[in-house]
Amino acid sequence: MKAxxxxxxxxxxxxxxxxxxxxxxxxxxxxxxxxxxxxxFDVSEFNAEESVSVVxxxxxxxxxxxEYETHYVDEAQTVSxxxxxxxxxxxxxVVEALNNKVMxxxxxxxxxxxxxxxxxxxxxLMMEKGLANPKSNGDVTTKPLIxxx
Length: 149
Known about the structure:
The chain is mainly alpha-helical. It has a domain at 76-105. The protein contains four helices and three strands; from the N terminus they run αβββααα. It has helices at 3-28, 75-85, 88-105, 119-127; strands at 54-56, 60-63, 66-69. It is flat and about 90 Å long. It starts with a helix and ends in a 22-residue tail after the last helix.
């Protein structure tokens, strides 16, 4: 046998013995390990704190001896009450005022299509990276191959 094969066999045997010992230690334990999986915490240093009761009632809630009153406001009801008092004309006037303000800041523009493309032509143009052939070459068709290598 060559020296390499002898080295490989000796190293494999050494690994086998090493891992067998490690596994045996893990299975049988070292003796100083606890038998149960429970953890113990020392809480003797903490000061004893008194708990405070919290009670909820119809008017609010109590924390210990203190009473707190809460008032429930139904937002949907208040919004509908506010809407019923307002008429529709002031709302329309506000909307018209905002539209007029926006229109005053806008510029007039006339939109025209100088060289329109349909979806197939636009796809060809994108595939050719903007180098379009003249529109007279309409007989050339492309077949897109997606995810094929």
